[in-house]
Write a structure and sequence with these properties.
This protein is an alpha+beta fold. 31% of the residues lie in helices and 32% in strands. Strand 6 and strand 7 form a beta hairpin.
């Protein structure tokens, strides 16, 4: 383990968990890399300031029922109240177009008692009408955030409907353009929105996604999101993986607190090194699964399979080395007990990734009418949730299937499933639990 204290910010550390022993001819090395940031959470200084843009869906469907729009206004007002003095912020009204609600003029306000009061006054004028074009909202948020001289740039997006006024390709182009420029938490309120659209926004922009089935819970959720955002102190942290000649990275994925595939997001960072984006950090810990293919070697030989370090992008886009580093090793042995023992961390998170995939595939098969396939996949998900101790996911699964025998994954699909229960399971399918120490 190595660690590094960023001046004025949290101290980063890296721990590697693996079974480094391979049998003769073995070539695949797996490791769980735990990255922890501690000592943060204090109010940020000028060098770690933040900007936040809140995007509020104001399409016509937000008036059904009328309380939904009122709940959205109240939740956004609560988020504004949670802003720390000095944070730059703005509010966007999202329909088939994007409009600046506050402060206007293509700029952001700086939070203080006066601007917070003005923003809440402006929110009272929000009303529902029009369509939905999420990419348009995100592009306006990007322009506003880009004009702020800050290190942390964050968006909060709320929608209650499907992205019907722009194509999937247009939204993807927007997400590609915004990726790495700011992070974004996305929320779907009610049950008339598309899960894959909302989770796709959060995934591309390294934020969180969730369902708020009851609009009355929006204020609680928005306050929690803003509190988390105010705790971020280091932006654009990258997981840098260096590998020696002859090795190949098979995949890199975040596995806690949720599963997030990072393999295809690599950017080259010098000879045999690549950076994988992780977004902004406060006082928190995350786990990553690294799988490396190494050249075959003889018994008794050993090699460094990978070196993992951390870096943070600076305003001039140079990368500051955060110092924390971990080593992944490979040792070839004829000790069968050593080479066949699966590290508990690797085993746990392999199961968690399979759990998320099984849920998503099972729900897709159910929607497509393949009940046998859905039963098999969701049964496997029940089995994996039980083995890993993922009680929250097990409870969500029990609202979609009748569990006959959890250890064997024997289930029956429920004849009737509440739409909110199915959407909650799909939205939260990638959330994981940590290994029990």
């Amino acid at each position: 383990m190595a660690n590094f204290a960023k001046p004025g910010g949290p101290q980063f550390s890296v721990d590697v968990y693996q079974n480094e022993f391979l049998p003769e001819g073995g070539r695949e090395v797996n490791a769980i890399v735990t990255v922890t940031a501690k000592g943060g959470g204090a109010p940020a200084g000028p060098g770690a300031s933040a900007a936040v843009v809140l995007m509020v869906d104001c399409s016509g469907s937000m008036d059904y029922p009328p309380t939904k729009m009122r709940n959205a206004r109240d939740a956004t007002a609560a988020a504004v109240d949670t802003l720390r003095d000095g944070v730059h912020f703005g509010i966007v009204d999202g329909t088939h177009v994007a409009r600046e609600v506050y402060p206007g003029g293509g700029r952001l306000a700086v939070a203080d008692p006066t601007t917070r009061a003005q923003a809440k006054q402006a929110l009272r004028r929000l009303s529902a009408g029009g369509g939905t074009a999420i990419g348009t909202w995100l592009r306006l948020a990007d322009r506003l955030l880009a004009g702020a001289d800050v290190s942390i740039r964050h968006g909060i997006l709320l929608t209650d409907g499907r992205n019907e006024h722009e194509s999937a390709a247009e939204l993807k182009d927007t997400l590609d353009a915004c990726a790495g420029r700011f992070t974004c938490d996305a929320r779907g309120v009610g049950t008339d929105w598309e899960v894959k659209e909302v989770t796709g926004v959060a995934s591309a922009l390294l934020g969180t996604a969730d369902i708020v089935a009851d609009p009355a819970r929006l204020t609680e959720d928005f306050t929690r999101i803003m509190e988390s955002t105010m705790g971020k102190e280091v932006a654009d942290v990258a997981l840098r993986v260096w590998t020696p000649v002859g090795t190949r990275i098979k995949f890199v994925k975040q596995v806690a607190p949720r599963v997030e595939e990072l393999t295809d997001r690599r950017t080259e960072a010098g000879p045999r090194a690549g950076d994988y984006p992780t977004g902004s950090w406060g006082d928190e810990s995350r786990d990553y699964h690294l799988c490396v293919e190494v050249p075959a070697a003889g018994l008794g030989q050993e090699m460094l399979a990978a070196r993992v370090s951390l870096g943070a992008a600076q305003p001039d886009r140079a990368v500051q080395n955060l110092g924390a580093q971990g080593l992944v090793r490979a040792v070839w042995t004829d000790d069968m007990a050593a080479s066949t023992s699966l590290n508990s961390q690797v085993a746990h998170y392999t199961g968690q990734a399979e759990l998320a995939q099984a849920i998503q595939e099972g729900l897709d098969l159910r929607k497509a009418g393949d009940m046998d396939g859905a039963t098999a996949k969701l049964g496997r998900a029940v089995q994996l949730a039980g083995v890993s101790g993922n009680a929250d996911t097990a409870k969500l699964l029990a609202k979609v299937v009748d569990v006959v025998d959890a250890p064997t994954g024997t289930v029956r699909l429920k004849a009737k499933v509440a739409e909110a229960d199915e959407m909650t399971l799909e939205t939260r399918s990638t959330k994981t639990v940590r290994v029990k120490k």
